[in-house]
Write a structure and sequence with these properties.
Blueprint lengths: L1 H12 L21 H6 L2 E6 L5 E6 L3 E4 L3 E4 L3 E8 L5 E8 L5 E7 L3 H15 L12
Antiparallel strand pairs: 1-2, 1-7, 2-3, 3-4, 5-6, 6-7
């Protein structure tokens, strides 16, 4: 009985820790669609706005960059969504605020499923604001 009470008191006194164990990503920002792609391909090949209009897309910690020169800061990104068309790759749309204040919409088409998944995951990470610290009530 004493052992049971001791064990129970240890369980009650132990603070709860949030942890998903093996599901946690060991490298910040890695999206795990494909480890090879996540580690070695920072720039993804896509079609911009229409088929046969090849472009490259890069997502950094702060920007969405097209063809290495056209970029939008993450705070200018408004919304993203996608459309799956059978027989073709997914179409991704990104609504953003242009520098002049107007609203723009970009379209990205991928023929490679791994690149499409990697793009979507990286874009979601870019658009998600992570707090620098955990609020006291959640700590």
């Amino acid at each position: 009985m004493k052992r049971l009470l001791l064990l129970l008191s240890l369980l009650v006194a132990t603070p709860a820790m949030a942890d998903l164990g093996p599901a946690d990503t060991p490298i910040k920002g890695e999206t795990f669609v494909d480890r090879y792609t996540a580690y070695t391909v920072p720039v993804l090949d896509a079609y911009c706005a229409q088929w046969r209009n090849k472009c490259t897309v890069e997502i950094t910690d702060e920007h969405l960059i097209v063809d290495g020169q056209h970029k939008v800061y993450k705070d200018q990104l408004i919304k993203t969504w996608y459309y799956l068309l059978s027989g073709r790759g997914p179409y991704f749309y990104v609504a953003y605020q242009k520098d002049d204040g107007a609203r723009g919409t970009a379209q990205f088409i991928f023929t490679n499923a791994t690149a499409a998944g990697e793009f979507y995951n990286r874009l979601q990470l870019l658009m998600t604001s992570w707090p620098d610290s955990i609020p006291a009530e959640l700590d």
